[in-house]
Amino acid sequence: MTRAVLSLGSNLGDRAAHLRSAVAALEPVLLAVSGVYETPPWGDTAQPPYLNAAVIARDEAATARDWLDRARSIEVAAGRERDPDRRFGPRTLDVDVIAVFAADGTPVVRDDPELTLPHPRAHLRAFVLRPWIDIEPHARLPGHGWLTDLLNAEPLATDVRALRPMPDLRIESA
Questions:
Q1: Residue 173 forms part of a structural domain
Q2: Helix and strand tally (H, E) in the chain?
Q3: 3-class DSSP state for residue 4?
Q4: What would the pLDDT profile of 114-155 be if each residue is shown by its tens digit?
Q5: At residue 159, does pLDDT exceed 80?
Q6: Which of 117, 121, 115 is nearest to 102 (CA)?
Q7: Coil, helix or strand for 149?
Q8: 109 lies in a domain?
Q9: Do 110 and 116 touch, CB atoms closer than 8 A?
Q10: What is the pTM of this model?
Q11: Model confidence at 174, in pLDDT bands (50, 70, 90)?
């Protein structure tokens, strides 16, 4: 069994519907869904703002690679097209595998071209960590520490102020 933390983001089309489609696709293994935040684009600022959320899911048989395959499948279903010239460009749906934990809670560490765990830039992204803390307030990002510490230190402390909570926007299924 593995447990995964996944980050969801969308800034093209019906952003909320794209996030809802990701949550619906994960429904059989879903444990928790964060609140939604509107966030400025990261890495490539010439694009619309994102809606971001995080989920925690558990699967009795999934490997880390299975989580990546599931994430990519959900992106494709939402019409995600990857532009190699614009790595951090706009997208209908982005599903990133942030961290995977074994049944005993041990973090899965992996470093290969297709999947690095924990996510190599998660500790730099308030739009990933802030939603995660909604659903796991005492979480630690493996190799980087407590989410609260990361969010309260620069550069993320400044970035957190740019996130806009969307309390009336619900993406989990009824």
A1: no
A2: 5, 10
A3: strand
A4: 999 999 999 999 999 999 999 999 999 999 999 999 999 999
A5: yes
A6: 117
A7: helix
A8: yes
A9: yes
A10: 0.95
A11: low
Strand partners for 99: 5
CATH number at residue 129: 3.30.70.560
Contact status, residue 48 vs residue 73, Cβ threshold 8 Å: no
Q: pLDDT of 38-73, one tens digit each?
A: 999 988 888 999 999 999 999 999 999 999 999 999
Number of domains in the chain: 1
Residue 172 resides in a domain: no
* Cα–Cα dist 84/79, whole Å: 16
16 CB burial (10 A radius; 0-12, 13-18, 19+):
middle
The answer to whether residue 170 is domain-embedded is no
With a CB cutoff of 8 Å and minimum separation 6, the contacts of 41 are: 11, 47, 48, 49, 50, 88, 90
Written as one string, the DSSP assignment of 115-133 is: -EES-TTGGG-HHHHHHHH
Query: For residue 73, what are the domain limits?
Result: 2-165
**Residue whose entry in the numeric block shows the structure tokens 């964060």:** 34
